Amino acid sequence: MLKKGLNIPISGEAALETMSTIAPDVVAIKPTDFKGFSPRLMVKEGDKVLAGSPVLADKQNPDILLTSPVGGTVQEIVRGEKRKLLAVLVKADGANEAVDFGAKDPRQLKGDEVKEILLKSGLWPSIIQRPYGVIANPELTPKAVFVSAFSTAPLAADSEFVFKDDLAAIQAGVTAFSRFAEVHVCVNSESSAFSSLKDVTVHTVTAKKHPAGNVGVQISHISPIKKGEIVWTVNLVSLAAIGKLFLEGKVNLCRKVAITGPAATKTGYVNTLPGTPMSAFQGCVDSSVETRFISGDVLSGENVGSNGYLGFFDNQVTLIKEGREREILGWANPLRFNQFSSSMAYFSWLLPKKKYSMDTNTHGGKRAFVCSDVYGKVLPMDIFPVYLIKACLAGDIDKMEQFGIYEVLPEDLALCEFVDPSKNDIQAIIQDGIDLMIKEMA
Asked: 430, 389, 201: which is closest to 300 by C-alpha?
């Protein structure tokens, strides 16, 4: 049982109902969603594509492709500074014709055959390799494959509700991965629908506090990653898509997305695709309030803005008010019943069941790095977070190895950033450390 952690009492949980289906006119294929992917264009503006047609290839490994989630026409190639490729926009034609890869029974396939299908379909990039959180190298074999069947992130989508109709696809997906290595699935209850999956080892995680649902935390307690070892992880959204590929023979990335957050005028679930514009969710936003659009959760999601797009790995949109107001007395005022404090600095701890309409205000700026056990109280991993963060800041590779850089991704220390009295961008610091490891250890 994991005792450490923290559940952030933010309001705006998604109601367990499907509000609508959003068929976006334009979807975005974003190479920036995939760590370690160096994009090479395979299409040009005006080209016709099918669902499953290759759009981008990795310059380092041309077998790794990104394919279109819809049938239509390439509308625009979006570039940023120094002509960095940010997205390929595809205008859907409504017919949604798809490439037929042929339905297959994964029980009858070998590992190399599974790999070939995933590479050609463009679903291989949905497999994340640890350490470092990059796209899995198809030339390497992992010691294990891990799937977290629940999420404890703030306002996270309810896995039992979202995937209740996709259990057959998820079973096909885990059977396919069992051709590579032992598959571990972590559930939060013995009565979970995912407990009955076959071809896997099921682990029951009884902790209810975040980040118990993070796959990195689960790996650290079940099979810690040592130097020279690799582990693959795949989330349920991607696993369901992979299973549908084998069952239907086509790329089907449709998913239930939770609309959440205190700035949402109505919450619930919508059926849509990755790459859907945030403008499609404007009907759920109070237009009188300046709102931040987050693809993912408030701790580790991406601030994509109102003109952004839903991330490939995400099945949650969080809408939260931009907090720009300054408070009278600020931290010196203990009577802040509308402010949550993880350290019980305010009397709000007298209201343990209260949900707070939080905004983006950090209530202070960066300060000197404080050495304390505040991180250790919320991180249920056998590492020294303060020393790891300092090693990343110093760029000391030996110390980063010593203090656990192989075991973590930025999302695993997101709570440390939330409770940090020094207001450090801890996730960015960890990512800088990982980038340095990739550069120096390549």
From this structure: 430
